[in-house]
Design brief:
single chain, alpha/beta, 41% helix, globular
């Protein structure tokens, strides 16, 4: 089994300092959170951009400035940026982000196959690899179909997300979905998959992913409080249980070169 790739999701779009005193809401705080995560052994950063006032932004100058700092201070770190919300505004929002040439950029599947194919071609044109965000089993099947038809290249990178509605679902329901999703991914040898979110079920879901050969993403974008209602003070604090558990289970943590090899980013 490959070493475990842990990804720190630094801030997201929906939360602000009012939601948690520890939330990295500004450009400098996002950068500090990423650097501290990397120094603690996290090889991949999932990045959204925030301006100096704490607002979410797609501004390529701000986004690019954040990436430049990570490139200069975190040697060879894997930069995964979020393109969520840009797919219907390609010229205005998506293409300027793709031009930043992050290692990996998120791709949320659209209802029309033709739109997905066009987006995949855009990613290829601007030299960034997609990671397909899958919010349902149907998304996973669609990603695999696009892969089988040659539109998505190997290795196919998939992220299984349990959205906010997971709060009303039982662990058995979420676990069943994860097991089926992992089974679909495992039937394709050239798929690298991870999972994230799940609210209070996040850690047991991640434990399942670790045991099944998947990878995990966690951070203050995905969750700001633990099961006891205490604020997480950093992305690393949220990732620590998964990192410790993986080691105890006998699965080593991937360093940057190993993570790059697994993700096809050498």
């Amino acid at each position: 089994m490959d070493p475990l790739i842990v990804t720190a999701s630094l801030c997201g779009r929906e939360r602000f300092k009012k939601d948690s005193p520890y939330f990295p809401a500004t450009t400098d705080e996002v950068i500090a959170e990423g650097i501290s995560s990397f120094k603690a052994g996290v090889p991949q950063l999932h990045i959204h951009a925030r301006d100096k006032t704490g607002n979410y932004t797609y501004d390529p100058q701000i986004f690019g400035g954040i990436l430049d700092v990570f490139r200069s201070t975190c040697p060879n770190v894997i930069l995964q940026i979020s393109a969520g919300g840009t797919y219907q505004k390609e010229e205005e929002l998506l293409i300027p982000i793709l031009k930043l040439k992050a290692d990996v950029t998120t791709l949320a599947l659209q209802p029309a196959k033709e739109k997905n194919i066009a987006l995949i071609k855009l990613f290829d044109t601007y030299g960034t690899h997609p990671i397909v965000e899958c919010f349902s089993l149907e998304n996973i099947k669609t990603a695999c179909q696009l892969f089988d038809e040659g539109y998505l290249k190997a290795p196919l990178r998939i992220e299984i997300l349990f959205e906010e509605d997971s709060k009303g679902r039982t662990f058995s329901e979420l676990a069943g979905e994860l097991l089926e999703g992992a089974g679909i991914c495992s039937s394709h040898k050239e798929i690298v998959w991870s999972c994230c979110r799940g609210d209070n079920h996040q850690i047991p879901l991640h434990a399942m992913a670790i045991a099944l050969g998947g990878h995990v993403r966690a951070g203050l974008e995905d969750r700001i409080k633990d099961n006891d209602g205490q604020y997480y003070r950093s992305c690393l604090e949220e990732l620590a249980p998964e990192m410790n558990l993986s080691v105890k289970m006998g699965r080593k943590l991937a360093n940057v070169p190993q993570a790059r090899k697994i993700l096809g980013l050498e």
